[in-house]
Amino acid sequence: MALDERTEEIAMTIISNAGAARAAAFDALKTAKTGDFEQAETLLKSAGEFSRAAHKTHSELLALYAKGAFEGGDILLSHAQDHLMCAALALELIGELIDLRKTMRQPAGKEEP
Amino acid sequence: MSTSILMKKLEKYAAAHAIELEILARGMNDYDDVYSKFDVILLGPQVSYQKSSIENDTKKPVAVIAPYDYAVGNAENIFKQIKKLYPGQ
Questions:
Q1: What is the pLDDT along chain A (113 residues), one digit of tens a residue?
Q2: Residue B47 in contact with residue B29, Cβ under 8 Å?
Q3: pTM, two decimal places
Q4: Which residues of chain A from 80 to 109 reach within 8 Å of chain B, CB to CB?
Q5: What is the CATH number of the domain that holds B75?
Q6: Which residues form the domain of B33?
Q7: CB contact under 8 A, A76 and B72
Q8: Which domains does chain A have, with CATH numbers?
C-alpha cells in the first residue's frame, strides 16, 4: 500500500474511532440524565474502548514518523488529531459530569465526605 | 472533511456499479437547506448520538455508518445500508 493511502487509512481509522468514542460518551451523558447510571456506565466503557482503538492507531502513526517513513504535515492527519482531542476531552468531562449527577442523586446525609 | 473523503469513495463505487444517485456530505449545522432534496440520510459515527433528533427534524430515514466501514470506506456495506433505508431504489 502506498504511503499516502496508508496515512489516509490511519487518519480515517482515528477519525471514526474517536468519533464513535465521542458519540458514545454523549450518549452516556444523555442516559445519565434519565437516571439510568448502569446503562450510562456501559456506554462510557464502550466510549473508552473506541478511544483506546483510536489512540492505538495514533501510536502506529507516531511509530511511522519515528522511523522516518513520512514527514508529516498532512492536513487530513491533523484533522484526525482534532477529532482525537475532542473525543478525549469529551470522555474525561462526561465521566466527571456523570459522577456529579450520581453524587447529587444521593439522599441527604449520605454524601461522601 | 473526512466525510467528503468517504463521499468520493461512495461516488466511485456508484459509478463502477452503474448506480445513479446524488451524494452530498454536510456538517451537523449545515443540512437544513439540503436534506429535503434527498431520500436517505447517513450519519458518520462521530454524530451517531444525534440520530433521533435528526430523524425528528427531517422525517427522513436515517442510519449511522459503522466506525469500521467509515474508516476503510467500505462502500459495499454502506450501499447495503442505503438499500435497507430505501428499498424502492
A1: 677 788 888 999 999 999 999 999 999 999 999 999 999 999 999 999 999 999 999 999 888 888 888 777 788 899 999 999 999 999 999 999 999 999 988 765 555 55
A2: no
A3: 0.81
A4: 80, 83
A5: 3.40.50.2300
A6: 2-85
A7: no
A8: 3-103 (1.20.58.80)
